[in-house]
Amino acid sequence: MHGAPVRFLHLGAAGRDSMSRRPIRRSARRRPVRRSKKQDEQVALVVGVVVAVGLVAAVVQWLLMHWWVLVIVAVAASAAGGLWYQKVQQRAAWARVRAQALRLRIAELDALDHRAFEFAVRDLMRRDGCKAEQLGGAGDNACDVRAIDPAGRVWAIQCKHRRDGDRGSAVGVGVLQQVNGTARQIHGADIAVVLTNGRFSSKAIPWGKQHRIHLVDRRVLGDWAAGSRPLWDLLDRIPPPRRPTALF
Q1: Among residues 221, 189, 246, 233, which one has the least CA distance to residue 120?
Q2: Quick check: 196 and 188 in contact, CB under 8 A?
Q3: Which of 67, 142, 162, 182 is the right S-S partner for 168, CB 3.0 to 4.6 Å?
């Protein structure tokens, strides 16, 4: 049987090499899709919000069905708030009574040290209805007690304690000059005061009047500490009130 001639394809060396270098294609495998951490957090947040909304809705529905529980809670909260307010008012009233009852003799003030003397002056200002604080110490800028009286006036008080009372050294012009430079400029005072359980020098008295520095000597201090009149009733040339009424 004679058929068509069979042709053989002869591959040279170059052809064989090119076939050997040809990459073998493999079927691609799909990698699983992984969610990022941020996506997981967003899903968790959505789930949490849904759960929270469901809980709130359930609680609201329960309260609507049991409305009397809200009434009991409201009554209990009102009673607790009333008791708390009553106790606050009682403590404030007791504090005012104790402050108003403060009476000090000049001998008691003489027996104090300088720091305790400053606190005594602060307490006397509070007795008269002022909001007062003790500032004395390093860097006090010549103001041991700063107070705001019921009329809104700001007081800057420099205290000078003398262990020997009026037998001790007199308070001189230098102290007044320090107060004059800081009371209004730094402490915003309407009333600048130098107060002592002793006495002032002969030059300090006219200097204080000239520069509107109020001087509280042993006599005025004794009247103020032992009596029921506030300090502004014992001093001359006090500025007018900033406001008509203001109680602390």
Answers
A1: 221
A2: no
A3: 162
Range with lowest mean pLDDT among 17-31, 41-55, 68-82, 155-169? 17-31
Residue 26 scores a pLDDT above 80: no
Is 172 within 8 Å of 201 (Cβ atoms)?
Answer: yes
> Cα–Cα distance between 170 and 150 in angstroms, integer?
32
Query: Contact, 129 vs 245, CB < 8 A?
Result: no
Contact indicator for 219, 234 with CB cutoff of 8 Å:
no
Angle separating helix axes 114-127 and 67-100, nearest 10 degrees: 120
Helix (H/G/I), strand (E/B), else coil: 194: strand
Instruction: Report the run of H or E that residue 147 belongs to, with start and end.
Output: strand 145-148
Rounded to the nearest 5°, which phi and psi values hold at 197?
-90, 10
Q: Give the full edge-to-edge strand order of the sheet including 154-160.
A: 131-134, 145-148, 154-160, 191-196, 213-216
Asked if 243 and 151 count as a contact pair (C-beta separation under 8 A), the reply is yes
Please give the structure tokens belonging to residue 63. Answer: 């309260």
